[in-house]
Amino acid sequence: MNPVYEKLMKCYESYKAKVDFAPKVALILGSGLGDYASDIRVECTLDYSEIEGFPVSTVPGHAGRFIFGYVGDVPVVCMQGRVHYYEGYEMADVVLPIRLMKLMGAEVLFLTNAAGGIQLGMHVGDFMLIKGQIACFVPSPLRGANIDELGVRFPDMSQIYDLHLQQTVKKAAVSLGIAIKEGTYLQLTGPQYETPQEIAMCRTLGADAVGMSTACEAVAARHMGMRVLGISCISNLACGISATPLSHQEVQETADRVAPYFKALVTEVIKNIV
Ligand code: HPA
């Protein structure tokens, strides 16, 4: 058996032995949304460390566990803490949780993240609906022997973010009176923040926001036929646009400040996913 698939199935067996829950939506909580769990009617949780072979995050502020429960009537599995490529994992490990959540039954992947704003007119604390993405210097999670059980060798990525779900996000934002921008998310590997020259490159490439996650997760999800949506919280203006040096603290503080709005938006979106 393909070793990547074998590891995935081991994790799945480990989950199956401990949890009896069928999620419809898989939600990944980016910086600042870590305590979103308080908005979920929690049925049970599963620490990543309890899953045999599961990659465990090393970033401060990224607790590592799955939360299973309901948002409204919608059964969700929520990742409190994601795995980043910059932590040193193979790309196959970075997307293992996405694949696992699909095996659990999730049809929709809802990605959230903190990102640096590049688009003109963007402000710290803005939200951005991700309409498209650029994986920049980030290896494909599909590299290597294709796992036919999950998807095809050459999957189409022309509409990676589901158009219908984008409408759901826009409607939810309007109903809550929350302004939301739209744009292209670009993933670099990090962990260093970009140089002003790299941000100039990102802008030339057509990026509106930049971060260190998400794009690879979206690719793995589309490979498996999941419907994907994503929202960025603009936690800072990207390097060279902002006059001040970047820090993880700024990212965290902004994300925390707007968290109540971000949470309300996430909840409204999930309740309206059909
Ligand atoms: N660059 C990359 N990743 C980020 C940023 C940024 O400015 N802000 C939050 N995540």
Account of the 3D structure:
With 274 residues, the protein is α/β, with parallel strands linked by helices. The chain has 7 helices and 9 strands; from the N terminus they run αββββααββαβαβαβα. It has a 5-stranded mixed barrel with strand order 5-8-7-6-9, surrounded by 4 helices.
Contiguous low-pLDDT stretches (5 residues minimum) are none
Round the mean pLDDT to the nearest integer and report it.
Answer: 93
First and last CA, distance: 36 Å
Alpha plus pi helix count: 7
Number of domains: 1
- Gross CATH architecture: 3-Layer(aba) Sandwich
Concise account of the structure shown:
The protein is α/β, with parallel strands linked by helices and 274 residues long. It has helices at 3-18, 91-94, 96-104, 163-176, 196-205, 215-223, 248-271, and strands at 25-29, 41-47, 65-71, 74-80, 108-117, 127-135, 181-187, 209-211, 227-237.
